[in-house]
Write a structure and sequence with these properties.
By secondary structure, this protein is an alpha+beta fold. It has two domains: 155 residues, Beta-Lactamase (2-Layer Sandwich); 236 residues, Histidine kinase-like ATPase, C-terminal domain (Heat Shock Protein 90). The protein is built from twelve helices and 13 strands. The strands form three sheets. Strands 1, 2, 3, 4, 5 and 6 form a six-stranded mixed β-sheet that branches. It has a five-stranded mixed β-sheet with strand order 8-10-11-13-12. It has a two-stranded antiparallel ribbon with strand order 7-9. A hairpin with a 3-residue loop joins strand 12 and strand 13. Helix 7 runs antiparallel to helix 8 and helix 8 packs antiparallel against helix 9. The longest helix has 41 residues. The chain is elongated, with a radius of gyration of 25 Å.
Length: 423
């Protein structure tokens, strides 16, 4: 018998993360959401004024019908978990709902539910009813009046399926990041025990430094991933299912990369692809308010680099330099071979950084990695300095209202060479 790892979803995913996710999804789409446990009991509600429509609120206020709702949600979640795919169905009251199972390490923990909306009348009968009705609405005029109310959001079936794909991507993300986080915590505890038992001071310092750098990378990734989910939530109401599918595809690539490259070295080709996926989402989200120009020497793209060394800087340019500007903005990415080095330049024509901020960052050159902490740029400089040591040089130039330029010069070590520390 498989050992049960978790009691419920809240053991592995922070409640505030889930609540924020549901809130953004509900606000972006106009549909109601909740997360229920494997027994159908609500775990997390979105932080919105009306969690339930008038009809469902009246049904839930009836103790008997509330139990039937929980039974319906539990059965829908279990049915969906058996295929590990979303399930579109009619509940026992005849309303359209969607169940997306959350499965962590082969254990079914709960289900993301969306519902309390209508689809076109001619499409309604295409959806199967999951459980038989327990109520004759003709005998409950109070419920019948609310049931026929037409104030609910109407979704064409094609858009509903796009939303289902969106939820499926998010649910898989939640499951994978939960497993990843759980395993990282277990590995960190094991690593610390091993480190405490080591007698050689130099080896101890080296391993502790590696753990510190991995921790820095873990702080970079969730911020970017959560912002990307924010973006796709805002785009989910697009009328064009094809465009919605392209955005979800870009998000899926970004999420997969974040989960499986956290502790590995990668190459510039992978970093460049991550930037392209990120910009594909941002350009649609911002209505092409921001453009990107690239000049890439493809002969450099096999150069080794730690993951998440470039894409977060592009995100910073948008969030801090360009997004608040009323004018259209441009980000430029230049990668070229320079002797035995690779020169990487990321620049924007945004609002720039204050003089004191630039001066604080430049203290790293004089006083070393421990002199400054906190920002994404500083953390990336520290990571690159650790991997490439004296082979890595950098510069930052920024003027208020004129933009920012970041210059990295790294050694050209082809990816086949692997981690330079092994040489």
């Amino acid at each position: 018998m498989r050992k049960k790892l978790f009691n419920n979803l809240l053991d592995v995913v922070p409640p505030e993360f889930l609540r924020n996710l549901l809130t953004q999804f509900s606000e972006a789409t106009g549909v109601k959401t909740l997360i229920a446990d494997y027994q159908g009991r609500p775990l997390i509600w979105p932080d919105i004024p009306a969690r339930l429509c008038a009809f469902c609120s009246a049904v839930r206020d009836d103790p008997y019908l509330n139990k039937e709702c929980e039974k319906n949600d539990a059965f829908a979640g279990i049915t969906a978990s058996q295929t590990e795919m979303p399930l579109i169905y009619r509940c026992y009251m005849g309303r359209i709902e969607v169940a997306v199972p959350i499965i962590v390490n082969s254990q079914y923990l709960g289900v993301v539910m969306i519902g309390q909306f209508r689809i076109e009348d001619d499409e309604h009968e295409q959806i199967d009813q999951l459980l038989p009705s327990k109520v004759n609405l003709d005998e409950r005029p109070d419920l019948l009046e609310l049931y026929v109310c037409k104030e609910q959001t109407v979704l064409p079936l094609t858009r509903l399926k796009a939303l289902v794909n969106m939820l499926h991507t998010i649910a898989n993300y939640i499951a994978e990041i939960s497993v990843n986080s759980h395993l990282q915590e277990s590995n960190s505890q094991l690593n610390m025990r091993i480190l405490q038992e080591e007698n050689k001071k130099n080896e101890l310092e080296k391993n502790l430094k590696q753990l510190e750098l991995q921790n820095m990378q873990k702080h970079l990734n969730p911020h970017f991933l959560f912002n990307t989910l924010n973006t796709i939530n805002n785009l989910v109401l697009l009328e064009d299912p094809q465009q919605a599918s392209e955005i979800i595809s870009s998000l899926s690539k970004i999420l997969r990369r974040s989960l499986y490259t956290n502790d590995q070295l990668t190459d510039l080709a992978d970093e460049y692809e991550a930037i392209q996926n990120y910009m594909a989402i941002q350009q649609i989200s911002l209505n092409n308010h921001i453009q990107m120009k690239t000049s890439i020497d493809e002969a450099c793209l096999d150069a080794t680099i730690p993951p998440f060394s470039l894409q977060p800087l592009v995100e910073n340019s948008i969030r801090h330099g360009l997004e608040s500007s009323k004018m259209c903005g441009t980000i430029a990415l230049d990668i070229e071979k320079s002797g035995s080095k690779v020169k990487i330049v990321i620049s924007d024509d945004g609002i720039g950084m204050p003089t004191q901020v630039v001066a604080k960052i430049l203290k790293l050159k004089k006083n070393g990695p421990s002199a400054v902490s906190g920002s994404t740029l500083v953390n990336i400089i520290k990571i690159l300095s650790h991997y490439f040591e004296n082979e890595f040089t950098w510069d930052v130039k920024s003027s208020e209202n004129k933009g920012t330029t970041i210059i990295f010069l790294i050694p050209y070590w082809p990816k086949e060479r692997g981690d330079p520390s092994n040489d």
